[in-house]
Amino acid sequence: MNIEDKLKELDILLPEIATPLGSYRPCVVSGNHIYVSGQLPLKEGELLSKGIVGDDVSLEEAVEAARLCAINSLAVLKNETGDLNKIKKIVKVTGYVASSGNFYKQADVINGASNLYFDVFGEKGAHARAAVGVYKLPINAPVEVDLIAEIAT
Questions:
Q1: Closest to 14 measured CA to CA, from 102, 83, 61
Q2: Architecture of domain 3-13+25-151
Q3: How high is the mean pLDDT of the chain?
Q4: DSSP 8-class letter at 103
Q5: CA-to-CA distance for 25 and 80, rounded, in angstroms?
Q6: Rounded Cα–Cα distance for residues 88 and 70 (Å)
Q7: What are phi and psi of 78, to 5 degrees?
Q8: Residues 32-69: pLDDT tens digits?
Q9: pTM for the model
Q10: Which parts of the chain are beta strand (E)?
């Protein structure tokens, strides 16, 4: 299936890509791989939720934040490639969850991103992954997701 059609079917509208918060690029292409910088759960320039998962942010809110991070990463992929149908494979996803001391469901949170990639790309969206609990994330975001994808050359 055409990826643009799949996005419409899933009612996903890709946003404009966020302006980097530091001295880096939204993505870098090297060979037939594209490395997407960490994406935050920004919607129209604002964080979907703020704070620490397990304290300020519920599991459900964090899962939705991870999904939004994934949508934002798709916007970066499309901006760079011009066409999401050029994505051959989502190779690796790393998710960071700002976690309270007693929160241990980082994998459940990052499923919000992983499931989105699978929903959009099917088997091409199945990937290797790490889900990591961290103390704090930029601008008080609860979740950050980066990825590596293989692109058609």
A1: 83
A2: 2-Layer Sandwich (3.30)
A3: 96
A4: -
A5: 11
A6: 17
A7: -65, -40
A8: 999 999 999 999 989 999 999 999 999 999 999 999 99
A9: 0.96
A10: 27-30, 33-39, 42-43, 46-47, 87-98, 128-134, 143-151
